[in-house]
Write a structure and sequence with these properties.
This protein has helices spanning 20-23, 196-205, and strands spanning 17-18, 30-32, 35-37, 48-55, 68-75, 88-95, 108-115, 128-135, 148-154, 162-164, 182-184. With 213 residues, it is mostly beta strands. Helix content is 7%, strand content 29%. Strands 1, 2, 3, 4, 5, 6, 7, 8 and 9 form a 9-stranded parallel β-sheet that branches. Strands 10-11 form a two-stranded parallel sheet. It has a single domain (38-206), classed as E3 ubiquitin-protein ligase SopA (Pectate Lyase C-like, 3 Solenoid), CATH 2.160.20.80. Pfam families: Pentapeptide_4. This is Pentapeptide repeat-containing protein. InterPro entries: 5peptide_repeat, PA_immunity-related.
Length: 213
């Protein structure tokens, strides 16, 4: 099992609770140093989220490409189909979040943790992941195409139909994940840690005939 050290979000000990409408500063399109409990988040462009805790906040369809997220916790939030493409995420946590169809493509993720998240059809294509962990997440049909990954941990996750096409998997440990079908680039699979059963599955994917004992 690969252990990745991830720095936690730096939050104030006591954050004032407020609604998105009150927390959102229209002048610089930011939310800073608050706890938003419930309600719906609304945006049509780049935002800055800094030192904020969102609890069961509705981010469905949230459009915020090229945004900056630093020291942010999404706790039980629904981010289905949210667009954070071309964004920077630093010291962020997603806890029990719904990420169905969420887009993080062409982004930089550093010190980010995803725990107990539903991330079917999510997209991380062309992103850079540094010190990132996924644990107990559903990532079926997610896309990690042409990503750069360093110190990325995949714990007990469901990865069926996930795509790592053109992504170098050297140093990536998949032994605790579950999948029956996965897309990879054979030349970029060297150094990836898998179980014997998973290795047989890969061999069959590449068209090899595996003789059973």
């Amino acid at each position: 099992m690969t252990v990745v050290k991830i720095r936690e979000p730096k939050l104030m000990k006591e954050l004032p609770e407020t609604a998105w409408e009150e927390a959102f500063d229209e002048e610089d399109a930011s939310v800073r140093s608050v706890c938003v409990d419930g309600g719906a988040a609304v945006s049509d462009g780049r935002v800055i989220l800094d030192g904020a805790w969102f609890r069961k906040t509705d981010f469905r369809g949230f459009r915020a490409p090229a945004s900056e997220l630093m020291d942010v916790v999404f706790d039980g939030c629904d981010l289905s189909n949210a667009d954070f493409s071309r964004s920077s995420l630093h010291r962020c946590e997603f806890r029990g979040a719904k990420l169905t169809g969420a887009v993080f493509s062409e982004s930089m993720l550093r010190d980010v943790r995803f725990t107990n998240c539903a991330g079917r059809y999510s997209s991380f294509n062309f992103s850079k992941l540094r010190n990132v962990a996924f644990d107990n997440c559903e990532l079926e049909s997610a896309d990690f195409v042409d990503c750069s990954m360093k110190a990325v941990a995949f714990g007990q996750n469901r990865l069926d139909d996930i795509s790592f096409l053109d992504t170098d998997l050297d140093g990536i440990d998949l032994t605790r994940t579950e999948f029956s079908r996965i897309t990879v680039t054979p030349s970029k699979l060297a150094g990836c840690k898998v179980t014997r059963e998973q290795a047989i599955g890969f061999a069959r994917t590449f068209g090899l005939v595996v003789e059973e004992d």
